[in-house]
Structure formats: structure tokens, C-alpha cells
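Hello, quick one for you while I still have it in my head. Could you read through the record and tell me how the C-alpha cells relate to the sequence? No rush at all, and the record is pasted right below.
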Amino acid sequence: MSTRESVDPQLLENQLCFPLYAAARLVTRLYQPLLEPLGLTYPQYIVLMILWADAPCSVSHIGERAKLASNTLTPLLKRMAEQGWVRRERAQDDERVVHIHLTESGLALKAQCACIPQQLLAKIGYPMDEGRALKGSLDRLVQHLLALDAAG
């Protein structure tokens, strides 16, 4: 690294955001051929993983876990309902709250998706210990950013 690169904060090479952005896009792209045969997009897969663990749950719960705004999540959930993977139901005690339930078809996708994490890791070929360390660092960064966001 040249002296210029080590001190110039406006160089792309010195930005934290760019390798995060690039890695996210590249990893998401690796999911496509694994999810496509099931008719799933990556955001739908994220929502399904949340539902497999937490269903039934509110749309706001899914949004919090997936870090997605309701204006992104609502059309996504509508498409998933049209596919027959989820059922949307208004809460009886508060009509503003919508609960998402998995259908049998949505539950069946869990078994069909069971091999995806291992297939993705094999495809990436990244050392497992480095991957765990990186995930831990990214989890801490996300928590820091969420706290910063909450502080306003």
C-alpha cells in the first residue's frame, strides 16, 4: 500500500463500506442458483428462516430480525402468500398488527432448503475459522450500527 492510499480517506480502497457492499452482493449472488430451483429469492429465504424459527409472528418482528422496512417487507410477504408459503392474518386484538403463519408448503421448504448452507460454504471455500471470526465481527458491527441508529 502506498503512502497516499494509507492516508487518503476518499480512496475506495480505504472505505469500510465498499468491501461490505461487495461481499454482500457476491455472497447473495452465490445463493441464486441454490434458491432459484425452489422459486425463492434471497430476501424470501431470509424471511422463511425467520418463520421456521419463530412462526407465527408479526410482520414487525420479521422486519426487526431481517433488518427490512415494512415498505419492503409487505410486498415480499404478499408474494410469498400468493406462492402459498405463508398466510397473513390480522390480530384480533389490534387490526394494525398482521401475523404471518407458515403454510404446509412453507414448512416443506425447510427440508428442501436444508442443504443450502453446506452447499454455499462448499462453493465459497473460505476457511471455517476465518468465517466464524468474520461473522462475529460483523454481528458486533451490526449491533453497534443499530445502537447508533436507535440513538438518532
Q: What stands out?
A: The CA atoms of residues 90 and 146 lie 28 Å apart. The longest helix spans residues 128-151.
